[in-house]
Amino acid sequence: MPRPLQATIHLDALHHNLGLLRARAQNARLWAVVKANAYGHGIERVFEGLRAADGFALLDLEEAQRVRELGWRGPILLLEGVFEARDLEWCSRLDLWHTVHCDAQIDMLSRHKTQVGHRVFLKMNSGMNRLGFAPQRFRAAWSRLNALPQVGEVSLMTHFSDADGERGIAHQLTVFQQNAQDLPGERSLANSAALLRHHLDADVMADWVRPGIALFGSSPDHPLHSLSDWGLRPTMSLHSRLIAVQSLAPGDSVGYASSYRASSHQRMGVVAAGYADGYPRQCPTGTPVLVSGVRTRTLGRVSMDMLAVDLEPVIQAGAAADIGASVTLWGQDPGGALLSIDEPAAAAGTIGYELMCALAPRVPVVTAA
Questions:
Q1: pLDDT digits over 127-163, tens only?
Q2: Where in the sequence numbering do the catalytic residues fall?
Q3: Within 10 Å of residue 316's Cβ, how many Cβ atoms?
Q4: Considering only CA atoms, which of 36, 35, 73 is closest in space to residue 51?
Q5: Which of 14, 75, 287, 303 is spaced 20 to 30 A from 143 at the CA atom?
């Protein structure tokens, strides 16, 4: 019998999340951002759930080729553009759109031999200070691109650094609008947080929106808003089972370093899941988990292959608390209860994005309609 740990990708949740985000995007077209192997879900697994998008946005040529091999003939955008000149040959061959964020990429384009002009997205550094041309250089970069015979169309983009926080997007939106004013070309500004929080602003929605994490069932501004606040659904569930049950007496400790000690008689369960599976070792006692659909907590340190859970709330609820009982580390419980991936992520001091991307290769993954 295989180890009772499995991740499930929910296509119905992907359909739902895509539809909800499309409705919020007003008249803008929607990139489904599937970088990092679709946030750890697997590009091939999510394709059917996201093929109603207007385009796919990702980072590298290998992922772009995989999307084409799945039969996608629509737009594909390389969010970081090309890394060396020969990448442009693949852009021509696979009909890829690509970001231009620096002079070196324009230099590569100027030397590229192509029969068909490339569609490029010129990126402005409006305040995030990662990629993009400084605002005062943006118009000159546009002029240089627009003059190249290798370029067929220039679109404009930027990326918000604080769409999920208190500072917001107004400062960057102002910088972008002032320095892109009167330049022709479609615009793409909104990431997941901007799309959810500013969907009534047509200037923010612009021509293309770029949701990523929201498609995959994580709230971009947790804990200010939960997944259910936004009406989104988890698209990845991590399920296991109890493989042992222990009875603790007052003073008994649990796990390495004895970081948890029972204060009274207590039933404890051992779950087949650990940090070698991608469950964060940093999760402390009290991290939420579902056992037989009942919300309870972890106890002690997470081990490589196992973790411990408090069975007292499960017993009090009259639910199954024996060996073989279902455990949901995040996502949709088989009985319908939900545990957002954002909750164990927050307990570990990180975000749902990291947990999705860190799912270990040894964890079996299945797709559910």
A1: 999 999 999 999 999 999 999 999 999 999 999 999 9
A2: 35, 256
A3: 11
A4: 73
A5: 75
DSSP 289: E
Region 200-205: mean pLDDT is: 96
Query: What sign does the CA torsion over 87, 88, 92, 94 have?
Result: positive
* pLDDT (0 to 100) of residue 357: 97
User: Which of 264, 286, 268 is closest to 322 using CA atoms?
Assistant: 268
Which residue matches tokens 């307990």? Answer: 347
Omega within 30 of 0 (cis) for the link into 250: no
327 forms beta bridges with 240, 291
CB under 8 Å to 15, separation ≥6 — which residues? Answer: 49, 52
Instruction: List, as one string, the DSSP characters of 95-159.
Output: T-EEEE-SHHHHHHHHH---SSPEEEEEEB-SSS-SSSB-HHHHHHHHHHHHT-TTEEEEEEE--
148 Ramachandran zone, left/alpha/beta (phi>0; psi -120 to 50): beta
Question: Three-state SS for 252?
Answer: coil
Q: Is 238 helix (H, G, I), strand (E, B) or coil?
A: strand
DSSP 141-175: HHHHHHT-TTEEEEEEE---SSTTSSS-SHHHHHH
Assess contact for 322 and 269: CB atoms under 8 A. Answer: no
Dump pLDDT digits (tens) for 248-299. 999 999 999 999 999 999 999 999 999 999 999 999 999 999 999 999 999 9
- The predicted model scores a pTM of 0.95
**DSSP H/E element including 29:** strand 29-33
Q: What is the pLDDT of residues 286-340, one digit of tens each?
A: 999 999 999 999 999 999 999 999 999 999 999 999 999 999 999 999 999 999 9
Q: Give the residue among 357, 335, 353 at the shortest CA–CA distance from 345.
A: 353
Residue 6 has φ and ψ, to the nearest 5°, of -155, 140
Amino acid at 219: S
Q: How many CB atoms lie within 10 A of CB 123?
A: 26
26: left (phi over 0), alpha (psi -120 to 50) or beta: left
Domains of the chain as residue ranges with CATH: 11-219 (3.20.20.10), 236-368 (2.40.37.10)
